[in-house]
Amino acid sequence: MSKKPAVRVNEQIKAKTVRLISVDGKQIGIVP
After folding, report:
1. What is the dihedral of CA 20, 29, 21, 16, to 10 degrees?
2. pTM above 0.85?
3. How far is Cα 6 from Cα 1, in angstroms, rounded to an integer?
4. Which of 4, 8, 12, 28 has the smallest number of CB atoms closer than 10 Å to its CB?
5. What is the full DSSP assignment across 1-32?
6. CB-based contacts of 21: which residues, under 8 Å, 6+ apart?
7. What is the dihedral of CA 7, 19, 21, 30, to 10 degrees?
8. What's residue 6's pLDDT?
9. pLDDT (tens digit, 9 = 90+) per residue, 1-32?
């Protein structure tokens, strides 16, 4: 039950990065 929350946090971090890019209008949050 420790891996489920971790995955959720990871998805939220990615969503925040995508939001930052959308607000800025640039692709500076996409890091391979």
Report:
1. -30
2. no
3. 9
4. 4
5. --HHHHHHHHHHHHHHHHHHHHHHTS--S---
6. 27, 28, 29, 30
7. 10
8. 72
9. 556 777 777 777 777 766 666 566 665 555 55
